[in-house]
Amino acid sequence: MRTLCASTLIGEFFVIGFAGLVAMKDDSLSMATVWWVCGVAMLLSVLLCGMITRPGGVQLGWALQIALIASGFVVPVMFFLGAAFAALWWASCHYGAKIDAVKARWAAQAEAAGPEPEAG
Prior knowledge:
This protein is about 80% helix and about 0% strand.
């Protein structure tokens, strides 16, 4: 699960940065505000890569997805991109958990079978 979720978060890192560049074109927003908000969101996306397996990591990821969708009020295309990344986040969590379960089952079967006999 960690690999799939981290890949999604790194993709979001870049999308948030590009959205910041688009938001800078809005005269009603100060550059400092845009980059402070984008910087925090980008930092959170990178930090979450290491927190996925810890308690609350997935929930913080969902909070980031909601914030990404809500950023569509500033940069309208983010409604679409936020929804797309939320779907990717769901798929990463859902299928990542299934992959982890299969790996655990294989490891348990290998342990129950005992060590492989040496050829020779």
